[in-house]
Design brief:
- The protein is α+β, with helices and mostly antiparallel strands and 413 residues long.
- It has 13 helices and 16 strands.
- The longest helix has 30 residues.
């Protein structure tokens, strides 16, 4: 008995099984993730260390080297390690073998960072941090925020505190990165000559500024009949009050910031910037989750934009600068049209050569069932609709046609 015998003897069961396969593929099709390329997760971690003011050479020798030494000794599955040191920042990229358990690797990286802590500079403001990344990822959307009236630091405040947080909560969004950050800050510009004449150093000024804007508890006042808790915020958020801070005394007279320089509002890091159409802007890079549908994720972000625009002044604009899904949509639509055209041409050619309606019905049924049923198996296996899988489906039409013709030959014989 051949493999075809039970299906030939039970035509009704065979028809129901064929319909079930076709329906399973139709149900799975909307749930398949859409991406430009197959989702391949490389176990990769990036370690970032900040040491403000240090030169790239100092960052490489005093920060990167101790960390790299510990990573090389304590990470058995490490396949590749690269580092880049710039002014005040070191970034180390750790790529592990494809079969590595990223959760276990994160634990080992944390232990290596703790072991290297004693070799790092003692005055680093914060310990190194790490996060998991996928080097094959690229942003699906780039949003731009700018204003012709409001300062760029105000635009950055709305971008980081409102737009970034709300977009990060949308389904399918993996992370949102802010490019060209202009975090609001107060910059104190000091005249070294005046400071030297006062017999003071920049470290004296830094110490005073650090203590001047600390929001400490104020305590309470206990009276004979009532007790009052003191609520006062002594943090300085504007530039002008900084000019009145007393940094020392000379000959009984107070020395204030305005005596040695001035305080001005500005960005925290003036070396960062971004532009759209030649104008200063804040860019938000939107990344999708590994198995998310890139098209539905992008549509969800775009649908959220009108609600986000209502949360900040109208003189700040929020627009889509780059949409990577345009080419993906075009590729998917083109391949879908190619598949339908190929099926139609195959059925037409078979009919023209055989001149038999029932013989033509066979490939006209088997080809769509085979293609749509494949979508169900793709969903079960965790595959996505991408350029490679769609190309494979297009090529598979030829194999299905060959099988259908062989079946027709056997039926005729």
């Amino acid at each position: 008995m051949s493999i075809s015998t039970p299906f030939i003897r039970r035509p009704i069961a065979t028809s129901l099984l064929t319909a079930a396969i076709f329906l399973a593929g139709l149900v799975a099709y909307p749930m398949l993730p859409v991406a430009p390329l197959p989702s391949v997760q490389f176990p990769t971690l990036t370690v970032t260390a900040q040491y403000p003011g240090a030169s790239p050479e100092t960052m490489a020798s005093t920060v990167a080297t101790p960390l790299e030494t510990e990573f090389g000794q304590m990470l058995p599955g490490l396949a590749q390690m690269t580092s880049a040191s710039v002014l005040g920042t070191t970034q180390i990229t750790l790529q592990f073998d494809l079969g590595s358990d990223l959760g276990n690797d994160e634990t080992l990286v944390l232990e290596a960072m703790n072991a290297a802590q004693g070799s790092l500079p003692k005055d680093m403001p914060s310990p190194p941090t790490f996060r998991a990344i996928n080097p094959a990822d690229s942003p699906i959307l780039i949003l731009g925020m700018r204003s012709d009236q409001a300062p760029i630091t105000e635009v950055d405040s709305y971008a980081e505190n409102i737009v970034e947080q709300q977009i990060s909560q949308l389904p399918g969004v993996g992370q949102v990165l802010v490019a060209g950050q202009q975090t609001p800050a107060i910059r104190v510009q000091v005249d070294p000559a005046r400071l030297a004449n006062m017999g003071m150093t920049l470290e004296d000024v830094r110490t005073v500024l650090t203590n001047a804007t600390v929001d400490n508890p104020k305590g309470s006042i206990d009276g004979p009949q009532q007790s009052f808790t003191i609520y006062a915020n002594d943090q300085l958020v504007q530039a002008e009050p900084y000019n009145n801070i007393i940094i020392g005394y000379r000959n009984g007279a107070p020395i204030r910031i305005r005596d040695i320089g001035r305080a001005v509002p500005g960005p925290q890091n003036r070396e960062l910037a971004a532009w759209t159409n030649g104008k200063p802007s804040i860019l938000l890079l939107v990344f999708k989750q590994p198995n998310a549908n890139v098209i539905s994720t992008a549509d969800g972000v775009k649908a959220k934009l009108p609600a986000l625009r209502a949360d900040f002044p109208p003189n700040i604009s929020l627009n889509v600068v780059s949409d990577r899904t345009l080419t993906i949509r075009a590729s998917v639509a083109d391949v879908e049209f190619t598949l339908m055209l190929a099926v139609a041409l195959v059925v037409m050619v078979i009919f023209l050569f055989l001149r038999n309606v029932w013989a033509t019905i066979i490939p006209s049924v088997t080809i769509p069932v085979a293609l749509v049923g494949t979508l169900g198996m793709m969903y079960v296996c965790g595959y996505s609709l991408d350029n490679l899988s769609l190309m494979g489906l297009t090529i598979a039409v030829g194999f299905v046609v060959d099988d259908a013709i062989v079946m027709l030959e056997n039926i005729f014989r």
